[in-house]
Write a structure and sequence with these properties.
The strands form 2 sheets. This protein has a 9-stranded mixed β-sheet with strand order 1-8-7-4-5-12-11-14-15, with no helix packed on it. Strands 2-3-6-13-10-9 form a 6-stranded antiparallel β-sheet, with no helix packed on it. It has a single domain, classed as Sandwich (Immunoglobulin-like), CATH 2.60.40.10. Strand 7 and strand 8 form a beta hairpin. The radius of gyration is 18 Å and the shape is globular. It is about 5% helix and about 40% strand. It is built from 2 helices and 15 strands. By secondary structure, the protein is mainly beta.
Length: about 270
């Protein structure tokens, strides 16, 4: 299937254990004039169908921290082959949070990421699969996520930039191919360009991870093309079919031209 969405992230202009929302039934997507203005740039004239029949999105109705809002994608119909997903936060200054491309070993999809939400907004996920184009999402009440101060002193944050950690978890899934769950954390301040230095009160220039590749051996698990709406110190938790490789390789680049690569043993602390 052609990868229609790989270039679309550019239009955004520039875990510890799993986090589950308790009230997602109450927060489906709401009517959005903003989305009507955005949709042409994101998907053109295409008309996505409702993805609820095969993809469940879990997100909090009221976020505890607008700068790290957990979004969980959980596939409920394993026969669907989800190739790509765009995560859009309608009301963010750069609405396209990330475009993901998934390898075969990621299906059925069980994936978590954390995003910034700048004001009350729909958070929508648009998928491309062998079943066509679909969309679903949740309405999240949060504000100030893109301008929230960084959690660390800039010197400390930059000193640890690019360090990565892998956690492996036991999976309860019973499948012919071993199924694993993993969590990858990448140290990076992911400055949005909307945050102020707490001493000078000047805006901190945007500096964020714009591309990530995660592979087991020679097999790609997923890639991400991202923007300022991905949280500080990005975290991704996901399930995948284990092909027997002893490690995961993660390669990330940021907007300053830095390249970070780590080979992370699957035997990492669980």
């Amino acid at each position: 299937m052609a990868r229609k969405f790989v270039q679309l992230a550019a239009l955004g202009i520039m875990l510890t254990g799993p986090v589950f929302a308790t009230d997602t039934v109450k927060n489906p997507l709401e009517d959005s004039g903003t989305w009507q203005e955005l949709r042409g740039d994101v998907i053109g004239d295409l008309m996505p169908k409702d993805a609820e029949r095969f993809l469940f999105i879990d997100a909090p109705y009221r976020a505890h921290d607008a700068a790290t809002v957990p979004i969980i994608l959980r596939q409920t119909a394993p026969e669907i082959d989800i190739d790509q997903a765009i995560v859009v936060v309608d009301e963010n200054p750069a609405p396209i949070a990330a475009t993901f491309t998934f390898g075969d070993a990621m299906g059925p999809l069980d994936f978590e990421l954390r995003v910034r939400v700048d004001q009350y907004s729909n958070v929508r996920v648009i998928t491309e699969s062998d079943a066509g184009l679909h969309m679903t999402g949740r309405f999240v009440k949060a504000s100030g996520g893109c301008s929230a101060p960084a959690s660390r002193d800039p010197e400390v944050a930059l000193a640890g930039m690019g360090k990565m950690k892998l956690r492996s978890f036991e999976s309860n899934a019973q499948m012919s191919t071993p199924r694993r769950e993993a969590q990858i954390m990448i140290r990076h301040p992911n400055y949005s360009g909307l945050q102020r230095d707490q001493i000078t009160q000047l805006f901190v220039p945007a500096h964020f991870i714009d591309h990530i590749e995660v592979a087991q051996g020679d097999e790609m698990l997923f890639t991400m093309d991202g923007g300022i709406s991905i949280s500080e110190n990005p975290v991704f938790r996901f399930a995948y079919d284990d092909n027997g490789a002893e490690s995961l390789t993660v390669r990330a680049t940021d907007t300053e031209g830095n390249v970070f690569t780590s080979v992370l043993s699957k035997a990492a602390e669980g």
